[in-house]
Amino acid sequence: MANFEAYQEYQRIEDIEEDSPPGEEDLLVHVPEGLKDSWHHIKNLDNFFTRIYHFHQKNGFACMMLSEFFELVQFLFVVTFTTFLVNCVEYDVLFANRAVNHTGPGQNPLDRNKVTLPDAILPSQQCTERIQENSWIIFLLIMAAIFWIYRLVKVFCNVLSYWEIRQFYIKALKIRMDELCNFTWQEVQDRLISLQREQQMCIHKKELTELDIYHRILRFKNYMVAMINKSLLPVQLQLPLLGNVVFLTQGLKYNFELILFWGPGSLFQNKWNLHPKYKRNGNRLELAQQLSRVILLMGLANLLLCPFILVWQVLYAFFSYTEIIRREPGNLGARRWSLYGRLYLRHFNELDHELHGRLGRGYKPTTKYMNSFTSPLLTVLAKNIAFFSGSVLAVLIALTVYDEDVLTVQHILTAITVLGVVITIARSFIPDEHMVWCPEQLLQCMLAHIHYMPDHWRGSANKSETRDEVAQLFQYKAVFILEELLSPIVTPFILIFHLRNKSLEIIDFFRNFTVEVVGVGDICSFAQMDIRRHGNPTWMSEGQTEASVYQQAENGKTELSLMHFTIKNPHWQPPQESSVFISHLKEKVQHDAQGGPSPQLLLSEAPLCTSLQSNESATGPDNLLASVLAHPILTASGLQGRDHHFIPPSTAASAAASVLASLSTSQLAHTGRSRAQGLLPSSVHPESTMYRSDRTIIDSMSNSDSRIRSNALHSEFASAEMSLHAIYMHELHQQSSHPQRTSGQWQSAVPMRDLHTNTGFQAHGGLGSSMSMPTTVHLGGWQEEEEEENEDDQEINSGSTPKQGTRSSC
């Protein structure tokens, strides 16, 4: 296993280069002398920048403190209310198992046996006696009280700390609290960088870069992303009957971070420096044994606390989800990005709000892809269950309408509620008969936003194995709740029997993939996005990387992360190796764009793109991306453009290259304009229909509103630009990995090293003689069917998978 102790660029910093003296790591030094209201030599910049980021994302001091206050109240309510329900309610009276006789001079004889709510509640004295007699309840209440006091102290410390951050925003960054929501994080970050030039917040560097700030905020998260990328953490388990199962919950993730980063016996001696002994190769076996013991102790501690954590998880889930399940049972069938999916799909140096926005844009196409899979057998069962349950429910409702006294019959109301839930759940398994099933197109739309996809998904979008792997990233909410409930039980066994076995690999990982950067401290080397050290030759890094298989990031993580960070931070100056990669990528885009469709054709000629532009709710970035994704199908279908000429066949890679080349040309031609305007294709006139409404609105707004709208457009165009890069780079990766596939789907590959010599390059085989014409398909994956009088005789086109209902396949 390779050893990377000697990095030429990154010299080890001695102990005298630490940001903070021992014992002063958590201090924020405010120096009023000399320059009033100035901040110099801030101790623990990790904590400081992280709090600045959270302060911005959580909308300021008032919102943050109110949220923490209600968290305390919520915990207190759950403990108090649960204790009351267990000890102070007479359930025999509440369920009418025991008669209650009300006697009194003014009591109506008809109401003597009527049970009221106070009848089922014990007197306070009797309730207190019950609690005092139960030693188990007293022990749990003491444990809860200790935890609540700990949380109270933590909230008090947060109030003091975030009040200081509030003062920093107002006095140093010149941002008032009522204007905070109008500033993007990039604007706050720019002010931080400018402030560093005036006041030395970090004394080891004269100027801070965007990457320095990201490294400070995401130091440990970058390590987690790298360990998931290298399959180091034991989150994939082989279980009997279930096969390969991914299990990663909040509790398990918390234990990983506690063991590795900031808990007792962790690998880091403070929040920015790995302990020196883990940087040396000599005692790796001894350190692995030591880490194994720490993991064992942590696993045993989790096993000891399992009953308490499990009780809390069950109570919290009950109070949180019971009313939602009763009101909208279909919510359990909704999907969410799993915690494993968020780490797997996350770029290096991607902040939380950037990840949330990107996955949010990918939610709908991923949902459509997952909903395209149905089981015919399950559909038949669901239809019959819905029929029988609906029949019984209809009768009960009719009887209730006829005579409301039916509701007084025991369990009638329960039966109505349960039948309603069963019908809702059953109908969620019945597919829409009018939905067109086009898995490859849906998978391509999904890739445009999530940016990562294993190679074997390509061409296998209609297989159940691919669907199961996507489900590991995009899980049911019901599965999420179940995993969180099982987490206190499963976590100790994963720590003891799986994580311990990887102790040596973890020690080697942190030694080999940790570099120390002046003014930042120890960071994960993958977070440097260094193409030479961690690039993959099949991801356009051929001839530029020296990385072995062990050193390479998987799935093009280094290359895609570099492009994402460059697009999100346009003022950042990348290192030389990264600049060379970006320059070569731009050159290849220009070469591929020469033979690709023109942006005018993408935005105007294609019929589907024209229909998208007629949608007033669609934005420019959405139209750009939709045009690129739809163009290969439109060209393969042999459709005519507006000028009645056939559109030549092309691929998604050539279409993406054409738009990206246009974006690059537009940015060079509009250097004096805003980023949102600079991203307009050069072939599209700024006053075209697609953008006229935005410009008119911007001109009529105030300066503040115009800046907000401009920032929104910049964010949308940057996201669309990254989506186009993701599509383009995946296509080129497939060409490099599978050069034999040159018909229909991919263009012929041109190595990066041949860009300067191959001047006669054809962008795709559709313009040459070696490319075979693809099979004609229906427009954009949408297919209309004529309704037949006898639907029972209609054939079901199952395609290549049995997991298909009555819907059509494109």
From TrEMBL:
Q: Where are the transmembrane segments?
A: 135-153, 294-319, 377-399, 411-430
Q: Where is the composition biased (Polar residues)?
A: 796-810
One GO biological process from the UniProt record? reticulophagy
Instruction: Write out the entry's keywords from A to Z.
Output: Autophagy, Lipid transport, Membrane, Transmembrane, Transmembrane helix, Transport
What Pfam families does this protein's entry cite? ATG9 (PF04109)
Location(s), subcellular: Preautophagosomal structure membrane
Question: Where is region (Disordered) located?
Answer: 671-692, 757-810
Membrane topology per the entry is: Multi-pass membrane protein
Please verify whether the record's keywords include Hydrolase.
no
> What cellular component GO annotations does this protein have?
autophagosome; phagophore assembly site membrane
Residue ranges with Acidic residues bias: 783-795
Q: Which family does it belong to?
A: Belongs to the ATG9 family.
Cited function: Phospholipid scramblase involved in autophagy. Cycles between the preautophagosomal structure/phagophore assembly site (PAS) and the cytoplasmic vesicle pool and supplies membrane for the growing autophagosome. Lipid scramblase activity plays a key role in preautophagosomal structure/phagophore assembly by distributing the phospholipids that arrive through ATG2 from the cytoplasmic to the luminal leaflet of the bilayer, thereby driving autophagosomal membrane expansion.
What is the name listed in the Swiss-Prot or TrEMBL entry for this protein?
Answer: Autophagy-related protein 9
Source species of the chain: Lates calcarifer
